[in-house]
Automatic annotation (TrEMBL):
Main subcellular location: membrane
Pfam family, one: PMT_2
Membrane topology label: Multi-pass membrane protein
Gene Ontology MF terms in the entry: pentosyltransferase activity
UniProt source species: Roseisolibacter agri
Lineage of the organism: Bacteria, Pseudomonadati, Gemmatimonadota, Gemmatimonadia, Gemmatimonadales
Protein name: Glycosyltransferase RgtA/B/C/D-like domain-containing protein
Length: 546
């Protein structure tokens, strides 16, 4: 029996129409993303990128517990497209293409062109079902970059084929980079190990050599990154924020115990249709693919299973179950689903031929399933696309477009419009040398206003968390010193944030007392209370330009 599976038959007219329609929807959705507002993390990373472009250093001038590459990614988008909210969306789409296109090509090499297109489009639609704030995030970028690096290792392998050293080195290098996004991404080596171990074109000695290529590439990237950080003088601050803070503080804030985490995971899967039915379909695909008579399909299935388990493990490990944490699961879920649909079609087609005369009705079931999956997956991206089109038809302003995409209602805490208005208010009443402090998670305000935050703490989490550790008192002392050295002209209190709630910080009494003594509330813009310095020392304009 041949080890190569038969390809999908020539696409029917219905297949072609549906695939073309879905591809057009993906393109329209991509355009709609340029209207998306920032979420919390988008604003934080945009501010970080702006500071780095102005000559600041990661971790020394802007604190974050995540790796440095997302900061530089936002800085790159600003350098290429200007200081706005849509440039990073273009970068996000480019990263999506870097993952989806190689994955689609690898599946096409295994199962045929239509299967490859189906896999790529399905992954793109599931990705597009995410909220604006969960996109352009380090989790999704790491997941898609790894998908692009792993995809060439899924291709058909036969005895005598040349080694895949360059692809293995690429996979190792990308794993090294991803480890500097979040440390546990080092476990992405597991699906690579499965791919190496199941490569029939290589003997045991050659497989060991392949493993060394992966390890050396990953270690080489790691050493290079650490060396650059050491030369830039940020290595110590990086270790403190990325390793020490995450181990001592962030990990301890996650949901305790694996039992409750598994329960929360199951509840999330039940509440998110995309992830929920994606896991069910991928599970069915894994069962079908692992029993396929063709060795190449079984190999790709085993790699997909290991890949899926790793990415779900990352979600469990973080214990927050936010949508962005699920983005790395999308490529392997799409891969296993596609292999399952393709394998099911093959099995039913063989059965129909054996029964000769049943009319081939059963063989159409996988086709109907595939089309139904695309239609269901297209629902949320279609909603975003139609919202944007309706807003443009109505002549909506940029701020109204943001409200369309967040489902904003007057009085809710989800309006990006308020952040823009607060930034505009502050920019009109201060000079470029004046500082602005944000107490909350609205770093979009100083980013849009182009005003620096005193010190490196751009959100309050590291100052409020970590009670009982040596980090909290040291961070608080550093924060207060920065305020004393360069008092901000305005303090932006995000009273709509569930952690902040009111213009008071009882859990940080020293800062609370300093705030009450030196600042007075000047205006409220939706959920933001803007406090103005009551003393001299900043250049608050008395008659700002309108």
């Amino acid at each position: 029996m041949s080890s190569s599976p038969p390809r999908f038959a020539r696409a029917s007219l219905l297949q072609g129409v549906v695939v073309l329609g879905v591809l057009l929807l993906v393109v329209a959705w991509a355009g709609a993303t340029l209207q998306f507002p920032f979420g919390i993390d988008n604003g934080i990373h945009a501010y970080q990128g702006w500071v780095l472009r102005a000559g600041g250093r990661p971790y020394v001038d802007v604190f974050d517990s995540r790796g440095p590459f997302v900061m530089y990614g936002y800085g790159l988008a600003q350098a290429l497209f200007g200081q706005n909210t849509w440039g990073v969306r273009l970068l996000d789409l480019a990263v999506l293409a870097l993952g989806v296109v190689p994955l689609a090509r690898a599946v096409a090499a295994l199962e045929g062109r239509i299967a490859g297109v189906f896999c790529g489009v399905l992954a793109a639609l599931w990705w597009a079902s995410s909220s604006p704030g969960s996109l352009a995030q380090p989790d999704g970028w790491a997941g898609m970059l790894f998908a692009g690096a792993l995809a060439p290792l899924l291709r058909r392998r036969t005895a005598g084929d040349p080694p895949m050293r360059r692809w293995l080195a690429l996979a190792g290098g990308v794993i090294g980079l991803c480890t500097f996004s979040k440390p546990f991404y080092a476990a992405l080596i597991v699906p690579v190990l499965v791919a190496i171990g199941s490569d029939r074109a290589r003997d045991h000695k050659a497989r060991l050599s392949d493993l060394m290529a992966v390890a050396l590439a990953g270690l080489g990237v790691g050493v290079a990154v650490l060396g650059v950080m050491w030369l830039a003088g940020v290595l110590r601050a990086f270790v403190e924020a990325y390793l020490v803070f995450n181990v001592k503080v962030y990990a301890g804030e996650a949901q305790a115990g694996w039992g409750p985490r598994v329960g929360s995971l199951l509840r999330y899967v039940g509440s998110d249709p995309t992830i929920g039915y994606g896991i069910v379909l991928a599970g069915a695909g894994a069962w079908i693919g692992s029993r396929d008579p063709h060795a190449d399909v079984r190999r790709a299935t085993h790699v997909g299973i290991a890949w899926t388990l790793c990415t779900i493990g990352f979600v469990l490990l973080q214990g927050r179950f936010w949508r962005q944490h699920w983005l790395p699961t999308i490529p392997p879920l799409a891969l296993l689903t596609t292999l399952g649909v393709s394998g099911l079609r093959r099995r039913l087609a063989v059965g129909e031929r054996a029964r000769a005369g049943a009319g081939g009705i059963a063989a159409l079931l996988p086709l109907v399933l595939a089309l139904a999956l695309l239609v269901v997956a297209a629902r949320t991206p279609a909603i975003y696309t139609l919202r944007g089109a309706r807003a443009l038809r109505d002549g909506a302003t940029r701020e109204a477009l943001w409200d369309y995409h967040t489902g904003y209602r007057q009085g809710s805490a989800s309006s990006f419009r308020a952040e823009h208005e607060a930034a505009r208010y502050i920019a009109a009443r201060t000079s470029a040398q004046d500082g602005v402090l944000v107490w909350g998670y609205a770093a979009s305000v100083p980013y849009l206003a182009q005003r620096r935050i005193p010190g490196r703490f751009i959100y309050p989490y590291p100052l409020l968390a970590g009670a009982g550790t040596s980090l909290q008192p040291r961070f608080r002392a550093e924060f207060l010193h920065a305020l004393g050295q360069r008092p901000p002209c305005y303090v932006v209190f995000d009273v709509g944030d569930p952690v902040v709630r009111a213009v008071a910080v009882p859990q940080f009494p020293t800062f609370d007392a300093w705030l009450r003594a030196n600042y007075r509330e000047e205006v409220r813009i939706e959920r933001f209370a803007l406090l103005r310095a009551a003393t001299a020392g900043c250049h608050v304009l008395q008659h700002p330009a309108s």
